[in-house]
Amino acid sequence: MQADILFSSQAAEKVRQLISAEGNDGLKLRVFVAGGGCSGFSYGFTFDEDVASDDAVVERSGVTLLVDPLSYQYLLGSEIDYVEDLQGAQFVVNNPNASSTCGCGNSFAI
């Protein structure tokens, strides 16, 4: 399924670098939402070689982003980005569905 989730060029480039460092061109970035975190839900990122038949798939610059169906409903309309600033370097989710977030940016409420 094609996703209504954006994958920034900065995030795609960082994923490409990480995959290259791992030496496994079959890796894809999986973004998921889990219960917990100080605001109720938290974002997670992992590499995965397998694409499930019901995964949402976003491709950018030859890199693939995967989202499972449960997480998709919370990430619809979001942008997955990669930022480097004074707080460090990390993948971030700019989620218009989040009613509040915590200071770390990895936890949110709907």
Layout of secondary structure:
Layout: E1 6-7, H1 9-22, E2 28-35, E3 41-48, E4 56-60, E5 63-67, H2 69-75, E6 79-85, E7 88-94, E8 100-101, E9 107-109
Parallel strand pairs: 1-6, 2-5
Antiparallel strand pairs: 2-3, 3-9, 4-5, 6-7, 8-9
Task: Supply database-style keywords.
110 residues, alpha+beta, 43% strand, 9 strands, single chain, three-stranded mixed sheet, Hypothetical Protein Aq_1857, Chain: A
Descriptive report:
- It is a single chain.
- It is built from two helices and nine strands.
- By secondary structure, the chain is of the alpha+beta class.
- It has a single domain, classed as HesB-like domain (Hypothetical Protein Aq_1857, Chain: A), CATH 2.60.300.
- The chain is globular, with a radius of gyration of 13 Å.
Helix content: 10-25%
Structural category is alpha+beta
Shape field: globular
Q: What is the N-to-C succession of helices and strands?
A: EHEEEEHEEEE
Q: What CATH architecture would you give?
A: Sandwich
The largest sheet, given as strand count, sense and whether it forms a barrel, is:
6 strands, mixed
- Terminus-to-terminus distance: 24 Å
Question: Going by CATH, what is the homologous superfamily?
Answer: HesB-like domain
Mean pLDDT: 85
Q: How many helices does DSSP assign? A: 2
Task: Indicate the proportion of strand residues.
Answer: 35-45%
Unreliable residue stretches: none
Q: How many strands in all?
A: 9
Kindly provide the radius of gyration, computed on alpha-carbon positions and rounded to a whole number of angstroms. 13 Å
CATH level 3 topology: Hypothetical Protein Aq_1857, Chain: A
CATH class (first level) name: Mainly Beta
In total, how many domains does the architecture comprise?
1
Question: In what order do the strands lie side by side in the largest sheet?
Answer: 4-5-2-3-9-8
